[in-house]
Amino acid sequence: MYAEVAGFYARQMRRLDEGDAEGWAATFTEDAVCRLSTRLEAMRGREELIAGARAAATAIEAAGELRRHMTGMFEIEERPGGFLHVRANTIVYATAASGASRVHQVCTCTDTLVRGTKGGRELLVKDRWIVVDGT
Amino acid sequence: MYAEVAGFYARQMRRLDEGDAEGWAATFTEDAVCRLSTRLEAMRGREELIAGARAAATAIEAAGELRRHMTGMFEIEERPGGFLHVRANTIVYATAASGASRVHQVCTCTDTLVRGTKGGRELLVKDRWIVVDGT
Amino acid sequence: MYAEVAGFYARQMRRLDEGDAEGWAATFTEDAVCRLSTRLEAMRGREELIAGARAAATAIEAAGELRRHMTGMFEIEERPGGFLHVRANTIVYATAASGASRVHQVCTCTDTLVRGTKGGRELLVKDRWIVVDGT
Predict the structure, then answer these.
(1) Touching check for C64 and chain B: CB below 8 Å?
(2) CATH topology for B2-132?
């Protein structure tokens, strides 16, 4: 379980860092809700997730930066109905074209994961709540 | 074993970051010894741990900051007598009210864990030695 | 598998951080190739790895710094022939003599691991490709 969850976050965040908005959105359920403390409106469903990821990628590229997400500190609980409740921390690093790296954001994540019905029964995010420290 | 240890550190550190001094101290044995390279005196027992965590929380709040601990790089060894010897690194991040985040401290931890006798035989810290880089 | 891989990286990186060039090089195969985006030439074999680690340690000491590697975000795939293909991120932290810590480098690693033939069939790096963000 731990290995599966940790591997899921690694794959999901890496897609985001590599600018694969569709691949990233595909790690959420069709009806997923993703809320961030930095956005007034939740993102609902894959189309909104793709649009959100693309807008972020455009802004990061305009800033001449690379971003990397490091997620860890997992607390994993199985819940009735096949849900996994996961608490995690994510640190987002930014590197400028000059090569200088810094901590961009410190985030806490509270997620509900479910298993997909197609293919390998892979994990998917159904609900995500991200609090960015300092917002 | 790895999952249990990683989950233990996630839970323990999260309690500290959330200001739950009692909950944090409860993850140590009654007779635990916790030494830090930044303190002359070791903390011994839960009362001293609670006092130490409260003093830290007060200082952090006075500074208008949030702190988050990210622990990883676990090397876990089973030792005779049911002890676990764990080496780990912890990075402490600080976020100011302005929203700016930074690396606060880089720490190496050498811990001895034991299993509690009550309830779920959960892991507890019996001995902790933290070296903060640069001190 | 996850625990073994995570433990391997913890041990390997800790040897580097502690200045144990020989111990670090011993976690690679005899014919290992290690490429970095910051070096024109690959390091090939343990002698070149030892020389590279020593040169780095000398430069870090001259700068009056300590370095710590935190590796995570593992994606692990078993490949034919007993190889493990591992993607990971590594953040390198630097702490100055003054005590100030910072993010030094953000790296992505793509490794091929194999099992050694001597002793405990431990993991060894056969091929490593490190991209340092911003280079």
Answers:
(1) no
(2) Nuclear Transport Factor 2; Chain: A, (3.10.450)
